[in-house]
Amino acid sequence: MTNLLDWPLDLPCGATLSNRVAKAAMSEGLADPGNHSTPRLETLYRRWAGSGAGLLLSGNIQVDRWHLERPNNIVIDDESGRVQLARLADAGTSRGAHFWAQLSHSGRQVSSYINPAPLSCSDVEIDVMRKAGFSFAKPKPMTEVDIRRAIGQFAFAAKEVKDAGFTGLSVHAAHGYLISQFLSPLANRRTDRWGGSLENRARLLLEAIAAIRRAVGPQFPIGIKLNASDFQKGGFTNAECVELVKLLNDTGLDLLELSGGSLEQPKVVGVTLKDEGEDGPRASALRREAYFVAFAGAVRKVADMPVMVTGGFRSTAGMVEAQEGGDLDVVGLARPLIAEPEAPLRLLAGEIDKLLSPEASLNVFHILPWNYMQIERLADGLDPDLSLTGEAAMAAFARLEGRNMAALLDYRRRRAA
User: Are strands 140-141 and 168-173 parallel, antiparallel or unpaired?
Assistant: First the structure.
Protein backbone atom coordinates (compact mmCIF):
# COMPACT_ATOMS: atom_id res chain seq x y z
CA MET A 1 0.00 0.00 0.00
CA THR A 2 1.39 3.37 -1.01
CA ASN A 3 -0.84 5.61 1.10
CA LEU A 4 -4.06 5.79 3.06
CA LEU A 5 -6.10 6.02 -0.15
CA ASP A 6 -5.48 2.28 -0.65
CA TRP A 7 -6.99 1.26 2.66
CA PRO A 8 -10.39 -0.45 2.74
CA LEU A 9 -13.19 1.20 4.69
CA ASP A 10 -15.74 -0.69 6.78
CA LEU A 11 -19.15 1.00 6.84
CA PRO A 12 -21.48 0.92 9.86
CA CYS A 13 -23.94 -1.41 8.08
CA GLY A 14 -21.23 -4.05 7.58
CA ALA A 15 -20.35 -3.38 3.93
CA THR A 16 -16.74 -2.58 2.95
CA LEU A 17 -15.35 -0.19 0.36
CA SER A 18 -12.15 -1.53 -1.22
CA ASN A 19 -10.37 1.84 -1.04
CA ARG A 20 -10.89 5.48 -0.04
CA VAL A 21 -11.47 6.95 -3.52
CA ALA A 22 -15.00 7.52 -4.82
CA LYS A 23 -16.30 8.58 -8.19
CA ALA A 24 -18.66 11.37 -7.09
CA ALA A 25 -22.06 12.00 -8.65
CA MET A 26 -22.18 13.90 -11.93
CA SER A 27 -25.21 14.65 -14.09
CA GLU A 28 -25.23 12.32 -17.10
CA GLY A 29 -28.38 13.35 -19.02
CA LEU A 30 -28.44 10.01 -20.84
CA ALA A 31 -31.85 8.56 -19.97
CA ASP A 32 -34.49 8.17 -22.69
CA PRO A 33 -37.54 10.48 -23.04
CA GLY A 34 -39.45 8.16 -20.72
CA ASN A 35 -36.72 8.76 -18.10
CA HIS A 36 -35.48 5.18 -18.09
CA SER A 37 -31.86 4.04 -18.21
CA THR A 38 -30.28 3.33 -21.59
CA PRO A 39 -27.47 1.23 -23.12
CA ARG A 40 -25.37 4.41 -23.34
CA LEU A 41 -25.57 4.80 -19.56
CA GLU A 42 -24.50 1.18 -19.23
CA THR A 43 -21.48 1.86 -21.47
CA LEU A 44 -20.54 4.88 -19.35
CA TYR A 45 -20.72 3.05 -16.04
CA ARG A 46 -19.02 -0.05 -17.37
CA ARG A 47 -16.11 2.25 -18.19
CA TRP A 48 -16.14 3.85 -14.74
CA ALA A 49 -16.50 0.42 -13.13
CA GLY A 50 -12.88 -0.13 -14.18
CA SER A 51 -11.74 3.28 -12.96
CA GLY A 52 -10.15 1.92 -9.79
CA ALA A 53 -12.50 3.85 -7.48
CA GLY A 54 -13.90 1.73 -4.66
CA LEU A 55 -17.25 3.51 -4.84
CA LEU A 56 -19.23 4.86 -7.80
CA LEU A 57 -22.11 7.27 -7.22
CA SER A 58 -24.68 7.73 -9.98
CA GLY A 59 -25.90 11.08 -11.18
CA ASN A 60 -29.30 12.31 -10.07
CA ILE A 61 -31.96 9.61 -10.12
CA GLN A 62 -35.14 11.54 -9.53
CA VAL A 63 -37.97 10.30 -7.32
CA ASP A 64 -40.56 12.53 -9.06
CA ARG A 65 -40.78 12.95 -12.85
CA TRP A 66 -42.16 16.48 -12.51
CA HIS A 67 -39.09 17.59 -10.61
CA LEU A 68 -36.09 16.95 -12.84
CA GLU A 69 -32.64 18.48 -12.82
CA ARG A 70 -32.31 17.88 -16.58
CA PRO A 71 -34.75 16.46 -19.14
CA ASN A 72 -32.90 13.14 -19.45
CA ASN A 73 -32.59 12.18 -15.79
CA ILE A 74 -33.52 8.67 -14.76
CA VAL A 75 -36.78 8.71 -12.78
CA ILE A 76 -38.03 6.06 -10.36
CA ASP A 77 -41.60 6.83 -9.40
CA ASP A 78 -43.22 3.66 -10.75
CA GLU A 79 -42.20 0.14 -11.78
CA SER A 80 -41.83 0.82 -15.50
CA GLY A 81 -38.02 1.04 -15.69
CA ARG A 82 -37.04 -1.99 -13.65
CA VAL A 83 -35.37 -3.98 -16.44
CA GLN A 84 -33.30 -1.02 -17.62
CA LEU A 85 -32.31 -0.11 -14.07
CA ALA A 86 -31.08 -3.64 -13.38
CA ARG A 87 -28.90 -3.53 -16.49
CA LEU A 88 -27.36 -0.26 -15.30
CA ALA A 89 -26.67 -1.68 -11.85
CA ASP A 90 -25.02 -4.71 -13.45
CA ALA A 91 -22.76 -2.47 -15.54
CA GLY A 92 -21.68 -0.33 -12.59
CA THR A 93 -20.86 -3.32 -10.37
CA SER A 94 -19.20 -5.35 -13.16
CA ARG A 95 -15.66 -4.87 -11.82
CA GLY A 96 -16.39 -5.29 -8.12
CA ALA A 97 -16.79 -1.69 -7.04
CA HIS A 98 -19.72 -0.47 -5.00
CA PHE A 99 -22.29 1.34 -7.16
CA TRP A 100 -24.74 3.54 -5.28
CA ALA A 101 -27.76 5.35 -6.70
CA GLN A 102 -28.04 9.05 -5.84
CA LEU A 103 -31.71 9.76 -5.17
CA SER A 104 -32.93 13.32 -5.58
CA HIS A 105 -35.95 15.60 -5.79
CA SER A 106 -35.25 18.97 -7.40
CA GLY A 107 -38.04 20.94 -5.71
CA ARG A 108 -38.07 24.47 -7.15
CA GLN A 109 -34.83 23.84 -9.08
CA VAL A 110 -36.56 22.50 -12.22
CA SER A 111 -37.00 24.15 -15.61
CA SER A 112 -40.34 25.90 -16.03
CA TYR A 113 -40.67 24.07 -19.38
CA ILE A 114 -40.82 20.79 -17.43
CA ASN A 115 -42.86 22.09 -14.50
CA PRO A 116 -44.47 25.54 -14.45
CA ALA A 117 -45.68 25.02 -10.87
CA PRO A 118 -42.94 23.20 -8.93
CA LEU A 119 -43.20 22.29 -5.26
CA SER A 120 -40.88 23.57 -2.55
CA CYS A 121 -40.93 24.35 1.14
CA SER A 122 -42.05 27.95 0.48
CA ASP A 123 -42.93 30.21 -2.43
CA VAL A 124 -39.43 31.72 -2.61
CA GLU A 125 -38.05 31.92 -6.16
CA ILE A 126 -34.50 30.92 -7.08
CA ASP A 127 -32.19 33.94 -7.21
CA VAL A 128 -30.14 33.26 -10.34
CA MET A 129 -28.96 35.26 -13.31
CA ARG A 130 -31.98 35.28 -15.62
CA LYS A 131 -29.83 36.08 -18.63
CA ALA A 132 -27.77 32.90 -18.19
CA GLY A 133 -30.44 30.76 -19.88
CA PHE A 134 -32.27 29.66 -16.74
CA SER A 135 -36.06 29.52 -16.59
CA PHE A 136 -37.57 28.71 -13.22
CA ALA A 137 -41.13 29.22 -12.06
CA LYS A 138 -42.21 30.48 -8.66
CA PRO A 139 -42.72 27.39 -6.48
CA LYS A 140 -45.83 26.39 -4.57
CA PRO A 141 -45.43 25.70 -0.84
CA MET A 142 -45.82 22.00 -0.12
CA THR A 143 -48.74 20.85 1.95
CA GLU A 144 -48.42 18.18 4.62
CA VAL A 145 -49.76 15.70 2.05
CA ASP A 146 -47.12 16.81 -0.48
CA ILE A 147 -44.33 16.38 2.06
CA ARG A 148 -45.53 12.92 3.09
CA ARG A 149 -45.75 11.96 -0.57
CA ALA A 150 -42.15 13.08 -1.18
CA ILE A 151 -40.92 11.01 1.77
CA GLY A 152 -42.78 8.02 0.33
CA GLN A 153 -41.24 8.63 -3.08
CA PHE A 154 -37.73 8.47 -1.62
CA ALA A 155 -38.57 5.21 0.17
CA PHE A 156 -40.13 3.67 -2.94
CA ALA A 157 -37.13 4.56 -5.10
CA ALA A 158 -34.76 3.22 -2.45
CA LYS A 159 -36.41 -0.22 -2.51
CA GLU A 160 -36.34 -0.20 -6.31
CA VAL A 161 -32.60 0.49 -6.55
CA LYS A 162 -31.85 -2.18 -3.97
CA ASP A 163 -33.93 -4.72 -5.90
CA ALA A 164 -32.24 -3.65 -9.16
CA GLY A 165 -28.80 -4.61 -7.84
CA PHE A 166 -27.26 -1.34 -6.70
CA THR A 167 -25.08 -1.92 -3.66
CA GLY A 168 -26.17 1.23 -1.81
CA LEU A 169 -27.77 4.64 -2.22
CA SER A 170 -27.14 8.27 -1.39
CA VAL A 171 -29.80 10.89 -0.63
CA HIS A 172 -29.10 14.25 -2.28
CA ALA A 173 -29.56 16.85 0.46
CA ALA A 174 -27.22 19.48 -1.03
CA HIS A 175 -26.79 21.91 -3.94
CA GLY A 176 -30.15 23.63 -3.61
CA TYR A 177 -32.39 20.64 -4.33
CA LEU A 178 -35.56 19.97 -2.31
CA ILE A 179 -34.06 18.74 0.96
CA SER A 180 -31.44 21.48 0.78
CA GLN A 181 -34.27 23.99 0.23
CA PHE A 182 -35.92 22.84 3.45
CA LEU A 183 -32.59 23.18 5.31
CA SER A 184 -32.00 26.74 4.08
CA PRO A 185 -33.44 29.65 6.10
CA LEU A 186 -33.43 31.67 2.85
CA ALA A 187 -35.66 29.21 0.99
CA ASN A 188 -37.64 27.85 3.93
CA ARG A 189 -39.99 30.50 5.35
CA ARG A 190 -42.43 28.04 6.91
CA THR A 191 -43.87 28.62 10.37
CA ASP A 192 -45.11 25.05 10.94
CA ARG A 193 -43.16 22.03 12.14
CA TRP A 194 -41.25 21.86 8.84
CA GLY A 195 -39.67 25.31 9.22
CA GLY A 196 -38.06 27.71 11.66
CA SER A 197 -35.58 25.93 13.93
CA LEU A 198 -32.85 23.71 12.51
CA GLU A 199 -34.60 20.68 13.96
CA ASN A 200 -37.78 21.60 12.06
CA ARG A 201 -35.95 22.42 8.82
CA ALA A 202 -34.14 19.07 9.07
CA ARG A 203 -37.34 17.09 9.65
CA LEU A 204 -37.81 16.20 5.96
CA LEU A 205 -34.29 14.80 5.74
CA LEU A 206 -34.57 12.86 8.99
CA GLU A 207 -37.95 11.36 8.15
CA ALA A 208 -36.84 10.49 4.61
CA ILE A 209 -33.81 8.62 5.96
CA ALA A 210 -35.99 6.73 8.44
CA ALA A 211 -38.45 5.76 5.69
CA ILE A 212 -35.60 4.66 3.43
CA ARG A 213 -34.04 2.53 6.15
CA ARG A 214 -37.37 0.80 6.75
CA ALA A 215 -37.61 0.12 3.00
CA VAL A 216 -34.11 -1.33 2.48
CA GLY A 217 -33.30 -2.95 5.82
CA PRO A 218 -30.33 -2.59 8.19
CA GLN A 219 -27.53 -3.98 6.00
CA PHE A 220 -27.97 -1.86 2.86
CA PRO A 221 -25.64 1.18 2.77
CA ILE A 222 -27.31 4.59 2.98
CA GLY A 223 -25.36 7.81 2.48
CA ILE A 224 -26.30 11.42 2.08
CA LYS A 225 -24.78 14.39 0.29
CA LEU A 226 -24.94 17.47 2.50
CA ASN A 227 -23.69 21.01 2.09
CA ALA A 228 -20.84 21.85 4.47
CA SER A 229 -22.32 25.31 3.94
CA ASP A 230 -24.60 27.01 1.42
CA PHE A 231 -22.02 29.84 1.35
CA GLN A 232 -24.81 32.43 1.20
CA LYS A 233 -25.49 35.17 3.69
CA GLY A 234 -28.50 34.05 5.71
CA GLY A 235 -28.35 30.49 4.36
CA PHE A 236 -27.48 27.09 5.84
CA THR A 237 -24.11 27.51 7.58
CA ASN A 238 -21.21 25.28 8.53
CA ALA A 239 -22.15 25.72 12.20
CA GLU A 240 -25.64 24.42 11.39
CA CYS A 241 -24.12 21.56 9.41
CA VAL A 242 -22.17 20.49 12.50
CA GLU A 243 -25.34 20.57 14.61
CA LEU A 244 -27.30 18.67 11.95
CA VAL A 245 -24.68 15.93 11.83
CA LYS A 246 -25.18 15.40 15.56
CA LEU A 247 -28.85 14.69 14.79
CA LEU A 248 -27.87 12.41 11.90
CA ASN A 249 -25.68 10.28 14.18
CA ASP A 250 -28.80 8.52 15.42
CA THR A 251 -30.15 7.65 11.96
CA GLY A 252 -27.89 4.75 11.00
CA LEU A 253 -26.18 6.51 8.08
CA ASP A 254 -23.18 4.81 6.50
CA LEU A 255 -21.51 7.70 4.69
CA LEU A 256 -21.76 11.49 4.87
CA GLU A 257 -20.56 13.28 1.73
CA LEU A 258 -19.80 16.98 2.15
CA SER A 259 -20.07 19.43 -0.71
CA GLY A 260 -21.34 23.00 -0.86
CA GLY A 261 -23.20 25.76 -2.63
CA SER A 262 -26.11 25.65 -5.05
CA LEU A 263 -27.23 26.97 -8.41
CA GLU A 264 -27.48 30.37 -6.73
CA GLN A 265 -23.91 30.06 -5.43
CA PRO A 266 -22.04 27.45 -7.53
CA LYS A 267 -19.19 26.76 -5.14
CA VAL A 268 -19.03 23.16 -6.35
CA VAL A 269 -17.22 24.46 -9.45
CA GLY A 270 -15.25 26.99 -7.42
CA VAL A 271 -17.39 30.01 -8.33
CA THR A 272 -18.71 32.71 -5.99
CA LEU A 273 -21.56 34.95 -7.18
CA LYS A 274 -22.96 36.28 -3.89
CA ASP A 275 -21.97 37.33 -0.38
CA GLU A 276 -20.81 34.14 1.36
CA GLY A 277 -21.83 35.33 4.82
CA GLU A 278 -20.14 33.91 7.90
CA ASP A 279 -18.52 31.07 5.93
CA GLY A 280 -16.81 33.47 3.53
CA PRO A 281 -13.22 32.88 2.41
CA ARG A 282 -11.10 31.50 5.22
CA ALA A 283 -7.34 31.64 5.04
CA SER A 284 -7.22 27.89 5.72
CA ALA A 285 -9.61 27.23 2.84
CA LEU A 286 -7.59 29.34 0.43
CA ARG A 287 -4.46 27.35 1.24
CA ARG A 288 -6.10 23.99 0.51
CA GLU A 289 -6.73 22.66 -2.98
CA ALA A 290 -10.16 21.16 -2.18
CA TYR A 291 -13.07 23.57 -1.87
CA PHE A 292 -14.72 22.21 1.27
CA VAL A 293 -12.03 20.34 3.18
CA ALA A 294 -11.36 23.30 5.50
CA PHE A 295 -14.96 22.98 6.71
CA ALA A 296 -14.95 19.18 6.95
CA GLY A 297 -12.74 18.74 10.00
CA ALA A 298 -15.29 20.25 12.37
CA VAL A 299 -17.97 18.00 10.91
CA ARG A 300 -15.87 14.84 11.12
CA LYS A 301 -15.09 15.50 14.79
CA VAL A 302 -18.77 15.05 15.66
CA ALA A 303 -19.75 12.48 12.98
CA ASP A 304 -20.28 8.84 13.95
CA MET A 305 -20.29 7.84 10.28
CA PRO A 306 -17.40 8.04 7.75
CA VAL A 307 -17.04 11.40 5.98
CA MET A 308 -16.41 11.93 2.27
CA VAL A 309 -15.43 15.29 0.78
CA THR A 310 -15.97 16.12 -2.90
CA GLY A 311 -14.80 19.13 -4.86
CA GLY A 312 -11.41 20.38 -6.01
CA PHE A 313 -9.02 17.54 -5.15
CA ARG A 314 -6.34 17.23 -7.83
CA SER A 315 -3.16 15.92 -6.15
CA THR A 316 -2.26 12.82 -4.19
CA ALA A 317 -0.50 15.03 -1.68
CA GLY A 318 -3.66 17.08 -1.08
CA MET A 319 -5.78 13.96 -0.65
CA VAL A 320 -3.37 12.30 1.77
CA GLU A 321 -2.92 15.53 3.73
CA ALA A 322 -6.68 15.74 4.24
CA GLN A 323 -6.83 12.13 5.42
CA GLU A 324 -3.85 12.34 7.73
CA GLY A 325 -5.18 15.62 9.13
CA GLY A 326 -8.43 13.94 10.16
CA ASP A 327 -10.63 15.91 7.77
CA LEU A 328 -12.15 12.97 5.89
CA ASP A 329 -12.29 9.22 5.32
CA VAL A 330 -13.11 9.15 1.57
CA VAL A 331 -11.98 11.43 -1.28
CA GLY A 332 -14.65 12.20 -3.86
CA LEU A 333 -13.48 12.83 -7.43
CA ALA A 334 -15.81 14.02 -10.16
CA ARG A 335 -14.53 15.94 -13.21
CA PRO A 336 -11.09 14.25 -13.16
CA LEU A 337 -12.86 10.97 -14.03
CA ILE A 338 -14.30 12.58 -17.13
CA ALA A 339 -10.96 13.86 -18.40
CA GLU A 340 -9.23 10.59 -17.46
CA PRO A 341 -11.69 7.78 -16.65
CA GLU A 342 -9.02 5.48 -15.20
CA ALA A 343 -7.40 8.18 -13.07
CA PRO A 344 -8.00 6.52 -9.64
CA LEU A 345 -6.37 3.29 -10.87
CA ARG A 346 -3.24 5.17 -11.93
CA LEU A 347 -3.24 7.31 -8.82
CA LEU A 348 -3.48 4.33 -6.46
CA ALA A 349 -0.73 2.54 -8.41
CA GLY A 350 1.56 5.53 -7.97
CA GLU A 351 1.79 6.17 -11.70
CA ILE A 352 0.55 9.74 -11.32
CA ASP A 353 0.45 12.20 -8.44
CA LYS A 354 -1.62 14.90 -10.12
CA LEU A 355 -4.99 14.69 -11.87
CA LEU A 356 -5.89 16.49 -15.05
CA SER A 357 -7.53 19.92 -14.65
CA PRO A 358 -8.87 20.95 -18.08
CA GLU A 359 -11.35 23.29 -16.40
CA ALA A 360 -8.43 25.57 -15.50
CA SER A 361 -8.35 26.82 -19.09
CA LEU A 362 -12.12 27.16 -19.50
CA ASN A 363 -14.46 30.10 -19.02
CA VAL A 364 -16.59 29.46 -15.94
CA PHE A 365 -19.76 29.21 -18.06
CA HIS A 366 -18.10 26.58 -20.28
CA ILE A 367 -17.07 24.15 -17.52
CA LEU A 368 -20.34 22.22 -17.23
CA PRO A 369 -21.07 22.07 -21.01
CA TRP A 370 -17.50 20.86 -21.65
CA ASN A 371 -17.87 18.04 -19.13
CA TYR A 372 -21.36 17.11 -20.33
CA MET A 373 -20.11 16.75 -23.91
CA GLN A 374 -17.21 14.56 -22.76
CA ILE A 375 -19.71 12.32 -20.95
CA GLU A 376 -21.55 12.02 -24.26
CA ARG A 377 -18.32 10.71 -25.83
CA LEU A 378 -17.72 8.22 -23.01
CA ALA A 379 -21.29 6.97 -23.39
CA ASP A 380 -20.54 6.27 -27.06
CA GLY A 381 -17.51 4.19 -26.09
CA LEU A 382 -15.02 6.92 -27.06
CA ASP A 383 -12.22 8.55 -25.13
CA PRO A 384 -12.58 12.16 -23.96
CA ASP A 385 -11.53 14.84 -26.45
CA LEU A 386 -9.28 17.13 -24.44
CA SER A 387 -8.86 19.43 -27.44
CA LEU A 388 -12.56 20.41 -27.34
CA THR A 389 -12.89 24.15 -26.81
CA GLY A 390 -15.27 25.69 -24.32
CA GLU A 391 -17.08 27.63 -27.04
CA ALA A 392 -17.64 24.50 -29.14
CA ALA A 393 -18.79 22.53 -26.10
CA MET A 394 -21.28 25.21 -25.09
CA ALA A 395 -22.78 25.39 -28.58
CA ALA A 396 -23.00 21.59 -28.85
CA PHE A 397 -24.55 21.26 -25.41
CA ALA A 398 -27.19 23.91 -26.15
CA ARG A 399 -28.24 21.96 -29.24
CA LEU A 400 -28.20 18.65 -27.37
CA GLU A 401 -30.20 19.86 -24.38
CA GLY A 402 -32.68 21.58 -26.70
CA ARG A 403 -33.29 18.29 -28.52
CA ASN A 404 -33.61 16.41 -25.24
CA MET A 405 -36.10 18.91 -23.86
CA ALA A 406 -38.17 18.77 -27.05
CA ALA A 407 -38.14 14.96 -26.98
CA LEU A 408 -39.24 14.88 -23.33
CA LEU A 409 -42.09 17.32 -23.87
CA ASP A 410 -43.23 15.51 -27.02
CA TYR A 411 -43.16 12.17 -25.16
CA ARG A 412 -45.28 13.61 -22.37
CA ARG A 413 -47.76 15.14 -24.80
CA ARG A 414 -48.18 11.80 -26.57
CA ARG A 415 -48.59 9.97 -23.27
CA ALA A 416 -51.27 12.43 -22.16
CA ALA A 417 -53.21 12.26 -25.44
Answer: unpaired
